[in-house]
Amino acid sequence: MKHITMIFATALLIWSAVASAQEVKFGKVSQAELAQETYPGDPSAPAAVLYKKMRLFYEYRQGLGFSLVTELHERVKIYNQDGFEYATVSERLYKDGRDREDVVSLKAFTYNLVDGKVEKNKLEKSGHFKTGLNKYYDEEKFTMPNVKEGSIIEYQYRVNSPFYWSMDEIVLQYDIPIQYQEVSVAVPEYFNFKPSSKGYLPLSPTYDKTSGKINFTTKQRSGNKVTGTSYNNSTIDYTINKTIFTMREVPALKEEPYVNDMDNYRAAVNYELQFVKFPRSTLENYSTTWEKVVKTIYKSDNFGGQLESSRYFKDDLALLVQGKAGGPEKMMAIFQFVQQRMNWNGYNGFYADKGVKTAYNEKSGNTADINLMLTAMLREAGLDADPVLISTRDHGVPLFPTRKGFNYVICAVSLDGGLILLDASNKFTKPNLLRTNALNWFGKLIKEDGSISTVSVMPENTSRVNTICHMQLDPDGMITGKLRRTHSDYKAYGFRNSYVGIQEDSYLEKLESKNSGMEISAYNIKNDKTVGKPVMESYEFTMEDQISKVGDKMYFSPLFHNTMDENPFSLEERNYPIDFSYPWEERYMISITIPEGYQVEALPEETSLALPNNYGSFRYKIVQQGKMLQLMVNLKMNKAVIPATEYPLVKELYKKVVEKETEKVVLTKNGANGDQDGTSGGR
Fold first, then answer.
1. Strand partners, 88
2. Of 272, 282, 298, 362, which one has the fewest beta carbons inside 10 Å?
3. pLDDT > 70: what percent of the chain?
């Protein structure tokens, strides 16, 4: 009881230290904070943010104009070794030519409790470095010194950005808890930003207004040699609109499987610039409606301008369409030509990077270079082709009109009354099969006349993996078998992207390692590079350690290494949808020959389960036919996305799947229980 009282007192002391923002000063770390062994609100947390203060505001410099400043002060408690990763802090810094963001005024310390006293270690230059990520971003990173279990790290810095019109997403929820945070955004009246929030945490900001002042100094040169140059000072007063987010006990965002991207459900606020209005100048509009957003994008030379260029591919196009009478033939010939000719350089974007002509000649480019080129070639061939703006899964869903919401472009072809989506930036896509990262709800199709329409990019066809396996058990528990597996559509796409380019020996080593105790021989694969056909692989194998022998009995799960032995859904509640990316089905047809001298004592019962609204189903059936067991297992999800409201039912279905697939077949030696005829002894 005394121990519990001490823990409560420690937690109370820590809470009182952060209950008021003005009481937390940099460097004033208490022994109570350092003595805390677990986070009271989430004892499993490897680390927690005890205090966070973030300020975004504008500074004005004469001759340079406004710049955006972000100041951050964070104090983080490390509870165990899993929390050590939070001792490395990084900032991505945007750059555009000579203009670039910079981190300045960094100071950081690690605090430890040593012999009852607070010991502090300062971040040295050796722990702080900057690297270039790509042509658009640098990364500033620092790793705190002398971090141990129980350490507290604290850092403070500011980011100066000349890109005053663009605010990064303001993240209000981490993968670890936040005990207290205060985030303020102060914007001069000249800039009108539209905020939009995401995530499932309630946000209740407060608002305030303050005043700002711009001081100008101008000089005038007079013709009088005596008076020379004179200087005039003037000021402009303006209003600053301030928004403050104050939050306590922010829970960690818990990772769960089958989410399009966890960051899409993280509590955060985005600010999109709507218009700018400086004194004595006209109002400059930015994004207000989807029509205006799309029109602005289409007018760019790096977008619409790329669709007007055709001279660079005319000779090749003439050869491609020669003898192709119908639209489908022309489309496939052009699509496959661009797909095989071009190599994606790893950059997404809806604006061309190199420009289509240069990319065509170099055979490399970003997604816009490739897919705008594809669109232009299809149009030149007489097809009704248009670009489609989309946002990738890791970029979020643009629910409101915003130019920042898109980061990708594909091509759509209207053909025979239907719409066919094409993405030539990957070698293994095909018509209406896009890269999985592009399967993100909807896109905006842009016609040549500037009109737009919303199109779904979510797949409807079911992608399948079918496995047929024949296995023979021997009396010692050794398994020999033959397996044939077929992958179709997105299952084949995923397999090709993982398999092609890897040495077969390396692939088989990984396959054997994944299926512990397996040795593979006579491996064969078909259609691994033939897009449009199912990938078929087959092999022979032996396995050990899959059967438990106790006395005269054998126990085993008839799916063996394919058994689902753990429910992937672990949260009690889930606020975000279950996203499988595409409808899918996994089917197993397995035959097992019973070893000589054994007979069946018990078999798992047949099970058939279904989710409401035809979301999915599970079937399991095993029967005995002489000395052979025949197993059929089918797990199917008919919808790419299942609402969060159905999470309890999906979780329960998977629980039943685990229970059934881990259920054992029981074999017993002939004569051990007086039964000699070899017939089924199932339940």
1. 143
2. 282
3. 93
- In this structure, are residues 177 and 51 in contact, taking their beta carbons and an 8 Å threshold? no
DSSP string, 188-248: ETTEEEEEEEESSS----EEEEEEEEEEEEEEEE-S-TTT-EEEEEEEEEEEEEEEEEEEE
pLDDT at residue 220, rounded to an integer: 63
Write the DSSP string, 316-339. HHHHHHTT--SHHHHHHHHHHHHH
* 532: three-class secondary structure by DSSP: coil
- What does each C-alpha distance from 200 to 49, 121, 266, 269 come to in angstroms? 20, 38, 8, 12
Cβ-based neighbours of 22, under 8 Å, separated by 6 or more: none
- pLDDT of residue 7 exceeding 90, the answer is no
Q: How far apart are CA 338 and CA 413, in angstroms?
A: 15
Residue 630 burial class via C-beta count within 10 angstroms: exposed 0-12, middle 13-18, buried 19 and up:
middle
pLDDT band at 397 (very low <50, low <70, confident <90, very high): confident
Angstrom distance (rounded) from CA 316 to CA 626: 64
Residue 209 token pair:
């207004």
The CATH number of 463-669 is which of 2.40.50.100, 1.10.10.60, 3.40.50.720, 2.60.120.1130?
2.60.120.1130
The Cα 193–Cα 272 span in angstroms is 5
Task: Write phi, then psi, for 272 (nearest 5 degrees).
Answer: -110, 125
Q: What is the rounded distance in angstroms from the CA atom of residue 606 to the CA atom of residue 614? A: 20
CB 368 within 8 A of CB 352: yes
Would you state the torsion angle of the CA atoms of residues 646, 649, 652, 653, taken in this order, to the nearest 10 degrees? -100
Distance CA 667, CA 682 (A): 10
Question: Can you give the pTM of this predicted structure?
Answer: 0.83
In whole angstroms, give the CA distance from residue 633 to residue 376: 47
- Distance CA(24)–CA(52), nearest Å, equals 10
Would the pLDDT of 122 be above 90? yes
CATH tag for 291-456 (out of 2.40.50.150, 3.10.620.30, 2.60.120.200, 3.90.1150.10)? 3.10.620.30
Do residues 153 and 110 lie in contact, with contact meaning Cβ atoms separated by under 8 Å?
yes
Give how far the C-alpha of residue 27 lies from the chain's centroid of Cα atoms, to the nearest Å. Answer: 36
Amino acid at 319: L
In a 3-state reduction of DSSP, which class is residue 590?
strand
Protein fold of 31-210+237-285: Immunoglobulin-like (2.60.40)
Q: Report helix, strand or coil for 459.
A: coil
**Token code pair at residue 315:** 């000779």
From the number of C-beta atoms within 10 Å of its C-beta (0-12, 13-18, 19+), residue 56 rates as buried
Hey, is 301 helix, strand or coil?
coil
If DSSP states are collapsed to H, E and C, what string results for 581-609? Answer: CCCEEEEEEEEEECCCCEEEEECCCCEEE
Q: Could you tell me the CA-to-CA distances from 73 to 86, 118, 351 in Å, in that order?
A: 15, 20, 36
Q: Which amino acid is at 586?
A: E
pLDDT (mean) for 519-525: 95
Return the H-helix or E-strand segment holding 268.
strand 268-276
- Where residue 441 falls (left for φ over 0; alpha for ψ -120 to 50; beta otherwise) is left
Mapped onto helix, strand or coil, the DSSP state of residue 435 is coil
Instruction: Write the CA distances from 546 to 300, 473, 480, 567, integer angstroms.
Output: 62, 10, 12, 20
pLDDT of residue 334: 97
Tell me the pLDDT tens digit for each residue of 479-504.
999 999 999 999 999 999 999 888 88
Which positions ≥6 away from 489 have C-beta within 8 Å? Answer: 433, 459, 461, 462, 463, 464, 582
